[in-house]
Design a protein that fits this description.
alpha+beta; six-stranded mixed beta barrel; four-stranded antiparallel beta sheet; 21 helices; elongated
Length: about 650
């Protein structure tokens, strides 16, 4: 009974303390409300992206579908990570703002465990209340988004999103954040931590001169270099590389910077300005966590903005309206021509399957010469390979007639199932060229000798024809519906329609821009929020410092310059780190991804996009620094 009564009283004390200090809770409230709101919107867009119609084919083992759902699996964890950092910082700010009150509680005889439980009660209630508000704001924002998306994509499409899943996934994330906040309180307010935290006036002057600092520094720099190496050798692994980059920056700043400063202390330049640099070193140590948070937030916002907007720069190369596959004895083409009178190229084909590689369209040299007005001759072991333009690099092409195409299986497509394939052919490549004959991101065409082509058809009993069709723009809508109907009825084995693919890409681009806007807003908010908390927490010490400088006879103008330098120093350090590191990372990605590619990919466009994103980020940060300086100046400098 006594334990229950004690717990009940502690809950009442915690509730009264929460109500009395709700103004001090505003920073904590705001960080969770914004986080929950943004996560709700991202979950909503994730469910929305799943409704984008995709194309899957069995014969080609090939699919067109929205990549947004996969991208959000990377974006959401990074946003959650950023939210945890900011929430942890707001917890630290709130606890520091109430240390005097906690000290009074301790003097009055409240046990450490009771005080910790009281703080946990305060934070739990704060988390629950702010999560509810965040969910409500998320619902309002998602409703507004729905109206916009209905106009951009279509009302029937937007109405199919399951809100139950959105609520469920967001609620799970809220629970994780609440547990994380409670865990943070336990870490900060353990027995030793509480004693140290209450003694807020103790200044720690410890320097990071331990030999282990060198090990940490080398480890951090090695992780950063490893991230560059990964993205250079495999641009598609950029998401893994960015994680290594963030971890390397964290380790370097948090554990390795002390070694650099201690080495720098021994230089003549340091000694000539020892007071200024010594002050800077201690200032850096006090604000290390803030610098790390802001640097990582800057890296995240620039990287994901560039990654997702870059995908909207290059449109797919689809030179044809339709690409279809039909059985050789089918009558689809005759019906299609009667209805739409389009252009067509029709030929029998086999699949040319590379061992552990892509499948190509294989056609006879006789058909190739007729359709494309060529005059080529091939031996039985010779082929002509025609690459698609999209994704082709210069080093892929070789017309020396010494290049080989080993391990080939002819017949059906084996992109996904290679168990029954017999790789029995080794070809000599007579000629290679880049020509976007087919489009739709298919690998390309391999031209085979007539004799070999006929043998492959008979051996595999593969009697199908490949059809490339184009119609007048005014008939495209009707023709697309007709082709889709024929595919659904089973008349066509496979069918790719340019209009369908462009519709998928258009919807994905719209959602991409929404995601970039949401992530950019929340991460910028997080960065500015952390700066604001830092300035607010040091406002009183800045006032005392300004008074001290005035008493020591420093001119007001010089005193203001000193304060201005300190106000912007932490922000500028984090901006330089984040912009410098991520600019090199993204430039490495661009050089590697676009290396040797044909003109269809706009490398210069990607570089311009990166520069624009960097400039916008710098502009926003500089404007905020200037605004915060003016605000703090008004708070510190009292007119005589």
């Amino acid at each position: 009974m006594d334990n229950e009564r004690g717990e009940h009283n502690m809950f009442r004390i915690g509730w009264k303390s929460f109500v009395a200090n709700i103004r001090n809770f505003l920073a904590f409230f705001l960080s969770i409300i914004i986080s929950v709101n943004v996560l709700f919107l991202l979950m909503y867009i994730r469910e929305f992206s799943k409704k984008i119609k995709g194309i899957e084919t069995k014969a080609l083992a090939f699919a067109y579908s929205s990549e947004l759902s996969k991208q959000l699996r990377v974006v959401i964890p990074f946003v959650v990570f950023a939210a945890i950092l900011v929430i942890a910082y707001s917890i630290k700010f709130y606890i520091n703002s109430r240390m005097e009150e906690y000290g009074i509680f301790k003097i009055l005889g409240i046990r450490k465990i009771d005080m910790r439980n009281m703080i946990i009660v305060e934070y739990t209630m704060g988390c629950i209340l702010s999560c509810i508000i965040g969910l409500f704001m998320g619902w309002i924002c998602s409703s507004a988004f729905k109206i916009v998306l209905q106009k951009k994509i279509g009302q029937s499409f937007a109405g199919t999103v399951s809100m139950n899943k959105v609520y469920l996934m967001t609620l799970i994330v809220c629970i994780v954040m609440i547990l994380g906040a409670v865990f943070a309180i336990f870490v900060v307010l353990d027995a030793k931590g509480t004693e140290d935290a209450i003694r807020i006036n103790v200044v720690k002057e410890k320097r990071g001169i331990s030999p282990i600092s060198l090990v940490w520094l080398v480890m951090g720099i090695s992780l950063i270099c490893l991230s560059f190496w990964v993205v250079k050798n495999n641009p598609m692994s950029a998401n893994i590389a960015i994680f290594l980059l963030c971890f390397g920056v964290f380790v370097s700043i948090c554990f390795g910077f002390g070694y650099i400063m201690e080495k720098y202390r021994k230089t003549d330049y340091f000694c000539s300005k020892i007071l200024e640099w010594d002050q800077f070193y201690h200032y850096f140590n006090r604000h290390k966590f803030q610098i790390i948070i802001q640097a990582l937030l800057g890296i995240i916002i620039i990287y994901f903005s560039f990654l997702m907007l870059r995908g909207t720069l290059d449109s797919r190369l689809m030179p044809n309206d339709f690409v279809c596959i039909e059985k050789s004895d089918g009558k689809f083409m005759e019906t299609f021509q009667k209805k739409f009178h389009g252009e067509d190229k029709t030929f029998p084909f086999v699949w040319v399957n590379e061992a552990a590689g892509d499948s190509w369209i294989g056609m006879s040299v006789n058909d190739y010469n007729k359709i494309f007005e060529k005059d080529e001759e091939l031996q039985k072991n010779e082929v002509i390979r025609i690459w698609r333009e999209e994704g082709t690099t210069e080093d892929m092409l070789d017309n020396s007639q010494e290049k080989k195409m080993p391990g080939i299986a002819l017949g059906k497509c084996t992109n996904s199932d290679t168990e029954d394939s017999v790789y029995a052919y080794n070809f000599s490549i007579k000629k290679e060229e880049v020509n976007e004959i087919i489009g739709f991101s298919m690998s390309g065409i391999v031209v085979l000798a007539d004799v070999l082509f006929d043998e492959a058809v008979k051996e595999n009993n593969f009697h199908q024809k490949f059809m490339i069709m184009n119609v007048e723009p005014s008939k495209l809508d009707t023709a697309t519906r007709f082709v889709e109907e024929q595919k659904a009825k089973g008349v066509l084995e496979e069918a790719f329609c340019r209009q369908i693919i462009e519709d998928i890409d258009g919807k994905e681009s719209i959602l991409n821009r929404f995601i970039v806007g949401i992530v950019a807003f929340v991460v910028l908010f997080y960065g500015i929020f952390v700066m604001w908390l830092s300035h607010l927490s040091e406002l009183s010490s800045s006032k005392e410092k300004y008074k001290f400088l005035s008493i020591m006879g420093v001119y007001p103008r010089n005193a203001k310059k000193i304060l201005y330098k300190e106000i912007g120093r932490t922000n500028l350090i984090s901006i330089v780190i984040s912009v410098g590191v991520i600019a090199v990372f993204c430039k490495t990605f661009i050089d590697s991804y676009y290396n040797g590619m044909q003109g269809s990919f706009d490398k210069s466009g990607a570089e311009k996009l990166l520069i624009i994103i960097l400039c916008v980020y710098l502009l926003v940060e500089i404007i905020y620094i200037q605004v915060s300086r003016n605000w703090i100046r008004k708070q510190i400098v009292v007119k005589e």
